[in-house]
Structure formats: C-alpha cells, structure tokens
Amino acid sequence: MVRLLIASVLIAVCSVAATAWLAVATTTRALREEQGQALADDMDILARLSGYAATHSDWTGVRATVRDLSARTGRRIALTTTDRTPIADSAAPGASLPPRAAATVDPLRTDTYSEPGAQLSGTDPRVVGPYRLTSEERTRVDALAGELQGCFTGHGIDTVLTRTPSGRTVLTAADGTAPEYVPERCSAGLYDSLTRTEEKALTALQRRVEQCLVREEPAFGRQLFLAPALTGGTPRTPGPGPGLVMKGEAAAVRAAQSCLGQARRAQLDPYVAPVAELFLGGGDSATGPRWNMSPANKAKVVGAAGLVLAVTVAVTAVVATRLVRPLRALTEAAQQPPDRHVRVPVTTRDETGILAEAFNDLAERRERLEAQRKALVSDVAHELRSPLTNIRGWLEVTRDGLVEPDAELLGALHDEALVLQRVIDDLRDLAAADAGTLRLHREPVAVDELLAQVAAAHRVAAEAAGVTLRTGAETGGAGWLDADPVRLRQALGNLVTNAVRHTPPAGTVTLTGRRDGDQVVLEVADTGTGIAPEDLPHVFERFWRVEKSRSRRTGGSGLGLPIVRQLTDAHGGSAEAASTPGAGSVFTLRLPAAAAPHDE
After folding, report:
1. d(CA 558, CA 419)
2. What per-residue string of b and e applies to 203-233 under the rule 16 or more CB within 10 Å gives b?
3. Pair 290, 87: CB distance under 8 Å
C-alpha cells in the first residue's frame, strides 16, 4: 500500500511539475513573442500608412494597402478622419470601431516613427514635396557621387551609394555611417552644389522662415543667415534630404527652431495626405489566430510528456515487479505436489510477507497433520489388531476343543472386548469433537461435588495400585460451573487414571479446585515419574505415550489426554500440563465460572 501510494504521488508530482513548468515557460515565451510580434506589426502598419501619406496628397487609393496589411498581420485596420469619418476599413461595413485610436497618422509629426533619418522636427523623411529631383538632376548627382566614390576607393576606403527619397544619392561607409577619414583630394566639389529644384524649394522655405521670425522675433529677423544642408552638414554623411542649418547668435537660433518647423510643415503640407486616426483590432478573418505554438515549444511539450511517461512506466515496472515476484513464488510453491510441502522465503514484512508466512505455516501444519494422519491410521490398526487377535485365538482353540470355555477364559475375552469398546468410544468422542457435533447437556455443577464424585469413582483403583487419592483443601470455595457433569467427570477421570498409572506405590494424586477471577481452575497433581521437557508439548496429541515400551493394555490407548483437551475446549476452557521429571506432573483445566443457582 505504501509503495503504491509513493509511486502514485511520485508520478503525480512529476506530471504536475512538468506541466506547470511547461505552462509557465511556454506561456511566457508565447506572450513575449506575441507582444513583440504585435508591437512589430503595429510599427510596420504605422510605418506603411505613414509612408503612404508621405507620398500621396490624399487617401484615395489606401484601401488596397489596408487590405494587404490586414491579410498579412491578421489584424483589423481602420483609418478615419479626425472626426471619425471612415476612410478605409478591413472589417465588414458597419462594424464598430475600437473605443480608442491606436495612433495618429501624420507624416509631418511622426513622433512614433523610429526609422533612421527621421527629422528632428518629427517629419517623415519620405516627405520630400518640392525637393524631389527631376530625372536629369538625379542623373547628374549620381554621376558626381560615383566620381566621389571612386576617389575614396582609390585611397582604400570602401563606401556605399545610397539614394534618399528626394532622389539625391549620398555616400556612406559600409555600415551606413559617415566615413571616418576623408582624403584631402576627395573634395565634394560640384557634389555640394544645389540643384535648381532644391535651390527653388530652399528659397521658398527661407522666405517662410524669415516671415515667421519677423512676426515672432522682430529684433532678430534681419540678423539670421540660413545656409543649405543637403545631407545634414557634409556631403558624405547620410541624411534625409534637403534641409537647413542656421548660423547666428544662440538666441536667434533657438527662436528660429520653432519657425523652421512651422515653415517646413507649411511648405510640405500640400504634398501629404490629411491627418488620419488609425484603429487596430483583433481581426475577423477566418484564417485563425496569428500565433501558433512554435516547433521548439512543441518539442518541449512532447519531450516532457515522454519523460513523464518514461518515469511512469519505469516506476510502475519496478513496483509491479517487486509486488509480483513473491506472488509468483507463492503460486509456484502452491502448484508443487502436495507431498513435497514446499516453503517460500519471506523477504518482506508487508502484506506479501505476511501471506508468505501464513503459507509456510499452512504447509507446516499440513505436513504435521499428514504425519499425524498416518500415525493415527497405524495406531488405530494396532489398537484394534491386538484385542481382536487375542479374541480370535481364544475362540479358535475353544472351537477346536483344546481349551474349555471356563469362567477364566470368558473373563479374558470380556476384558479384550472392553479394550475394543474403550478404543472405539474414545475414537467416537474425538470424531464428534472434531466435527463439532459433540453434544453437551449443561446444568449448574458444584465444583466440590464434582471433584468428590471423581475421587470416589477412582479411589478403589488407586488403592489397588497403592496410591493415595485425595481432594485439595481449597475445593470448598471453588464455586460453580455451567457444564455437562458427565463430560467433566469423564475428562477428570481420564486425568486421574493417567496420574494413578504413572504414580509409583505410596505416591499421591491430588484433585484441587479454586476460583481465579472469572474462571474455575481444576488441577490433578501426582507425585509420579514426571514428563521430560521435550515430551511435554506432545502429551495432548493422539496415540502419544510417554513410555513407548508400555503395551496398549498397561499404558493406555493414547487417546485419554486428547479427549480431555477436546472436552475442555467444548466447554470454552483450556487444558495445560506442567511437569518436573522425578517429582510429578500437574494437569490444569481452566473453565468459565458460573453464578450459584438461586434456591427455589
């Protein structure tokens, strides 16, 4: 029971621990992946829509872009004006919008746009407006950039040509940054000069800035010098396209920052789509969720399940083997021939070990009973053969006329018949006791009267053997028994007969009765030869005699003491024997005491 419980608890703990660990690890990883993927998707959606707004003056053709983004990400994408007028929606018509917008799509104020090259003012670098070069200007700038790259290559410096959204080609290092070393011979030259398109746009921008400064800071309006910054300061560093750098006093520069941002937005506003609100949802397509368990997580789940299964099988196999092994040994022992009386080794103290001990005890009792059965058959045959042989022999010689049938002969035949009768009666009583059919006629019995009757019945035989038979001094206070007086006199008579037989002349046999709690103790003590310690456990066995050399006529049949035990057990009592070799023996009967009967 304990091993099975421990095995079950171990399997349950391993399963729960593995499941909990997998659930925590997988869920944590999945949430991180989901959050990262969702954030990446949101940023990609915003970047795509901001790029569309940066390159289109309205939202007329944005529906195709919205449907494509929704199909790729599995998200619902909705664009509305600032007053919630729908522009494009991937959901079915009439679907309600989320309560809050996820972002505002405004390429002139892209605070959430993180692509390298974004303007400090928040303008999307893809908004070029009037700064877009013509095809002829792009060709000329590309040629100048190629010559500059060749110069760098001649000095062992690797560079990369990158085209900006306005169409201008810039020179960068291999990692996208500005080259750390610029050879003196590799001057920008004509590459630094503005194209006609850029010059026109910058002139318009400068005019707007000056007008703003006159309104905002009249004192500094005529003290600023605005210079073109094609790529953020030098021709060889990456940048978003045409812009301005300002030179002048610090206060004027700070004052001009606000006007520059306002002027740029005012200049580029006609070229971008109007400001829109972006709403993102979970999607309503039938393609299912965007995230599925990764192969790595599936492998972990399968591996943990396999490990738990292996542990379960291993623990179950070990426990089952330990439980079945002794049972298999018991089965093999039980299938052996009965005459072998096989025992099994006892290796544990659990239920299986107790069963093995019970099996061994059963085999031992069976072997002992088999030996007793064989001895019983042999002894019964011997007990009956001797008197029958004597009777047959005397009858044959009488029939042949060799002996006269006088009184002495008839007396001898009568004695042999009495021996047969006694053996048969003893066997009948034992058989009835074994079968549980021994009938008792119970009635109140006074212990002192019972002992007096037994002593009176055997006093003559005792005197003839030269043995003194008496009752003990405690007999008068022994009390009463609820018993069959005939059967008790038979049991005590067998004890007295056995004691007189084994007590030499001038010896004494004493009958004693006393009260011991709720029991009455009856004792028959003698001063005979006694019983050896090794023979004492066998005195109540059938056909067993202390002196094997005695004949059945002088030593008894060996059934008297077994009958005593059977009769005592039938009354709910017990029979015991104690002896000291050379000093005598004491046979004790313990019977339940009864209350004295009330006088009528």
Report:
1. 13
2. eebbebbbebbeeebeebbeebebebbbbbe
3. no
Q: What is the pTM of this model?
A: 0.43
DSSP secondary structure string for all residues of 42-86: HHHHHHHHHHHHHH-SSSTTHHHHHHHHHHHH--EEEEE-TT--E
Which pLDDT value is given to residue 190?
A: 62
Q: To the nearest whole percent, how much of the chain has pLDDT over 70?
A: 80
d(CA 45, CA 51): 10
pLDDT at 197 over 80: yes
Q: How far apart are CA 217 and CA 209, in angstroms?
A: 11
Task: Look at residue 58 and tell me whether its pLDDT is greater than 60.
Answer: yes
Does residue 393 register a pLDDT over 50? yes
Query: pLDDT for 400-428, tens place per residue?
Result: 888 888 888 888 788 778 777 877 877 77
Give the residue, 113 or 175, on which the prediction is more confident: 175
Strands 508-516 and 519-526, sheet pairing: antiparallel
**Least confidently predicted of 218-232, 453-467, 557-571:** 218-232
Among 585, 597, 452, 576, residue whose Cα is nearest residue 513: 452
Q: Please, which residues bridge with residue 471 across strands?
A: 511
Q: Which phi-psi region, left, alpha or beta, contains residue 53 (left: φ > 0; alpha: ψ -120 to 50)?
A: alpha
CA distances from 536 to 184, 530, 550 (A): 129, 10, 18
CA-nearest of 133, 135, 109 to 54 is 109
Pick from 534, 481, 469, 477: nearest CA to 508: 469
Q: Which secondary-structure segment (H or E) carries 235?
A: none
SS3 150: helix
Cα-Cα-Cα-Cα dihedral sign, residues 294, 300, 302, 303: positive
Question: Rounded CA gap, 219 and 230, in Å?
Answer: 29
Instruction: For residue 280, list its beta bridge partners.
Output: 77
Answer whether residue 224 shows pLDDT above 70.
no
pLDDT band at 525 (very low <50, low <70, confident <90, very high): very high
CA distance 37 to 70: 14
Give phi and psi for 225, each to the nearest 5. -120, 120
588 is written with which tokens? Answer: 């004790």
Amino acid (1-letter code) at residue 350: D
Helix H or strand E segment including 300 = helix 295-334
Q: What are the residues facing 277 on neighbouring strands? A: 80, 104
Q: Which residue has the tokens 């310690």?
A: 533
Six-digit token pair at 7?
Answer: 């095995």
Block residue for tokens 């103290």: 349
Integer Cα distance of 78 and 59 in angstroms: 12
In whole angstroms, what is the distance from residue 530 CA to residue 582 CA? 5
